[in-house]
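Encode chain A's predicted structure.
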Amino acid sequence: MQQLTHEISRQRQAEMRGAAARPGRARQQNANPLEIVIRHAEDCDRAALRRLAALDGIDFVPGSWLVADADGRLTAALHLDDGKVIADPFTPTTAVRRVLELWAAQLTGRPGGLRRRLRLA
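Encoded structure for chain A:
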């Protein structure tokens, strides 16, 4: 598992270095807003969820997941049973995590997401 995590991290770092070497392209990508879709995970998302868990250093737990799909790539996911969040550590996901928590609070009826929002205000 550690070797897989290391290999995935190494590949992601190489991708990020390549993007940084092309500043014109990076600026162009940032000019367009990122489209994020929040949805329930499907069976076909299992490999991507395992990849996220490996990147985040967490064991994958099967069950019902809410995922954030950014331009066709899963960047974060929230386990609806226990509220555990996994995310790509190489992508800024603070806001996405918060959105997942709010959606989960609405879906499950648990008021935990609302309390945290009120503290930040």
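The radius of gyration is 16 Å.
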